[in-house]
């Protein structure tokens, strides 16, 4: 079960504060619903969460084509003009997404995201939903 959003705020802030040039941190469910966020506007976090649902699905489809892969997406990094986007699996049915400026230390971000997921990954889970309700 997902912990209350307020319980995640300080952990997401810690990630953002620990990696200079972080713009927004979002925890989302596999179906694209925002669970928690730090930084940025709430509407932007909701749009990012929705986009991530499609991206993690695409990444899993690509992973399925790699021999000896279990077909599950672990991390996606996209570099765009002006910054980076990170998406990492963060527990059963949950993901951690980050938007950062182009001056971010990409290696540091990846490592800090991994550390956060290891520390709290068991709490970053989202049960499957049917008709908008958790099952």
Automatic annotation (TrEMBL):
Pfam entry (one): Robl_LC7
Entry protein name: Dynein regulation protein LC7
This protein's UniProt keywords: Membrane, Transmembrane, Transmembrane helix
Transmembrane segments annotated in the record for this chain: 82-100
Gene3D superfamilies, alphabetized: Dynein light chain 2a, cytoplasmic
InterPro entries found in the cross-reference section: Mycobact_SerProt_Inhib_Rv3364c (IPR053141), Roadblock/LAMTOR2_dom (IPR004942)
Domain Roadblock/LAMTOR2: 9-100
């Amino acid at each position: 079960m997902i912990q209350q959003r307020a319980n995640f705020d300080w952990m997401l802030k810690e990630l953002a504060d620990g990696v200079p040039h972080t713009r927004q941190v979002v925890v989302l469910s596999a179906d694209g619903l925002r669970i928690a966020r730090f930084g940025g506007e709430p509407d932007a976090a909701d749009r990012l969460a929705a986009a991530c649902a499609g991206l993690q699905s695409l990444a899993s489809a690509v992973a399925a084509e790699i021999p000896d892969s279990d077909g599950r997406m672990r991390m996606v990094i996209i570099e765009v003009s002006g910054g980076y986007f990170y998406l990492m699996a963060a527990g059963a049915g949950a993901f951690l997404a980050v938007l950062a400026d182009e001056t971010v230390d990409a290696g540091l971000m990846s490592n800090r995201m991994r550390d956060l997921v290891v520390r709290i990954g068991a709490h970053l889970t989202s049960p499957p939903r049917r008709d908008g309700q958790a099952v």
